Amino acid sequence: MKTRITDLLGIKHPILLSGMSWISVPQMVATVSNAGGLGILATGPLDAEQTRKAVREIRRLTDKPFGANASLLFPGAAQNANVLLEEKVPVINFALGKGDWIVKRAHEYAGKVLATVVNHRHAKRAQDYGTDGLIVTGHEAAAHGGDATSLVLIPSIADTVKIPIIAAGGFCDGRGLAAALALGADGIAMGTRFMTTQESRLHENFKKLSIEKEVYDTLYSDRFDGLPCRVLKTGAAEKAIKRGLNLPRAFLNSRDIAKNLRIPYSKLFFGVLASGWKTIKDLAFMANAFKAIQLATEDGDNENGVLPVGQATGLIRDMPKVSEVIERIVAEAEAVQKKMAGMMA
Amino acid sequence: MKRMFQTKITEILGIKYPIVVGTMMHLARAEMVAAASNAGALGVLSSATFQKKEEFREELKRLRGMTDKPFAVNLNLFPARRPVDNREYLEVLFEEGIKIVETSGNRAPEEFAKDLKNQGVTFLHKCVGVRYALKAQSIGADAVTVVGYENGGATGILDVTTLCLVPRVVDALKVPVIGGGGVTDGRGFLALLSLGAQGVIIGTRVLVAEECPIHPSLKKAFLDATELDTMVIMRSIQNSHRVWINDAARRVAELEKKQAALQEIIKAATGDRAKKMFQEGDLNAGTISCGQGVGLVNKIMPMKDIIESIIREADDLRKKVAAL
Predict the structure, then answer these.
(1) Which residue of A34, B74, B199, B207 shows the fewest CB atoms closer than 10 Å?
(2) Within an 8 Å CB–CB cutoff, is residue A215 touching chain B?
(3) How many Cβ pairs within 8 Å bridge chains A and B?
(4) pLDDT digits over B176-228, tens only?
(5) How many CB atoms lie within 10 A of CB B67?
(6) Does pTM top 0.90 for this prediction?
(7) In Å, how far is A145's CA from the nearest CA of chain B?
(8) Which CATH superfamily is domain A4-203+318-341 in?
(9) Residue ranges of the domains in chain A?
(10) What are the tens digits of pLDDT across the range A112-142?
(11) What is the signed CA dihedral for A200, A205, A211, A212, rounded to 10 degrees?
(12) Is A120 in Cβ contact with B168 (below 8 Å)?
């Protein structure tokens, strides 16, 4: 299957691994790229030095194209993006901010840049400053989808931009890939599907939950990390959303973040204090969410862990290998075309 | 056009294209329904629009005079401000020999499913979740229609989008599935068939059909609207509906926030002001069901052209995707 995305990124199949904190780690990224898709490293939980190490590890594990993300709202994201540029990472995927400077510098070494967007304004802006492609995220997606669903948002944005589109949110099988191509996308990005694979680092407790849960077993609220965010519906998630912003907890968790990111705590603390209430609130929310997601993905903590997943979790019934996921999606999407041809008298 | 996209749905309903033009309160009268059926889709008459049994019978006769193609009649099981007695409508349906009935509501019509089957009526049930779809199948529905979160009108409370709901229901049912919510053109049509639906249901797209009896200024507003110009109201009273955002919709949301009385909310949402809106073009008089697909609606066309353009676009796309 050849599309504008396989051409642009130099990959075999138009299937991307979304950058998920603690899940899209070097070994997982390389596995997806080796299977003919494009793995995207999640740099959210990493500091600059760790990011550089992760990129180099991916290069040891694969000679295929790969990507890395930078959620520009996170503390430390710009430093990480700088590392990605210095390391000449083939594909950089930025989100939640303006990535014009990333585009400019990536193009100097013929790197490609993808912007994750949920609306027209950001899609157009990204195209205007030269972004190579878009990851358009619908309402059903894990974490930060907007209100518009993939079925509506993808064709709507495809009507107004020229650059290729990768559809994200609700895609997990060959029917979904066929649907995405019908809607005007050139490929799909998947998180929820890839997190429940044999090679995924997601804790077994949550892999099991993801298989058991239904399409309606997610929660979508802005009371988890401060932005509208979709997570797996569990007791812990319900509790976190009911609680909303908890400043004392954020204070404690922010110490962990500082340690994780190796920022001196006083620097993080006073930096945040100086940035005004809105930013304090955003970062405090995020500090708690960060912790809860880590507890779910790494420790499998059912009591306090919260896992972002998409509604597609209800369509996932098994735990195959990554290569099997990709091969079966492509085969199924091709079978859909044959079935469709058979509907013509 | 030649026969295209022949599915189990075209087969059991005897229609040319696997498209159902969703019923709409006050709007799906004989003219709209005949236009849809004559275009090769399935038009669905809204029985709840008619307060009296005899008015309803008259409308059926008018409709029969306008088309010799298959059409369906919808029986509304939702809680309404003026609840209707569906038994009365059923009597008329059977007397008039209606062949296809669509029911829609928060529950499956267990009380008269048997009668429908005994009368040889093809029976479709429209719902918003896997459980409801299974229930409908178990009481004998010949096909089940499911619509997702983005759908205009009733959306349910589960908020599952069409993209995830349709394949889930397809996997769960033996009877064919008609999918909808967010489908307005050939792209959405082909996407739904790719997901395993045997047919699609459209609604918002035909709000701007030439035949749709709403005021031109309302149509113009829909052409200008984006996918973010709709909202869900009446969630607090377990009657979630997606509507176009206007003053009336905002008023309902306010009332819900204040936890106003049930009747007050329903009155603000469904009151008789719809007529003022539809006929006189007062854009803020009442609420109107509208899906997120309104963002993709940008041209007023006759019903026939809408249906044919969907099929043509889907066929072109199908070839393009197959060649990748």
Answers:
(1) A34
(2) yes
(3) 151
(4) 999 999 999 999 999 999 999 999 999 999 999 999 999 999 999 999 999 99
(5) 17
(6) yes
(7) 12
(8) Aldolase class I (3.20.20.70)
(9) 4-203+318-341, 214-299
(10) 999 999 999 999 999 999 999 999 999 999 9
(11) -170
(12) no
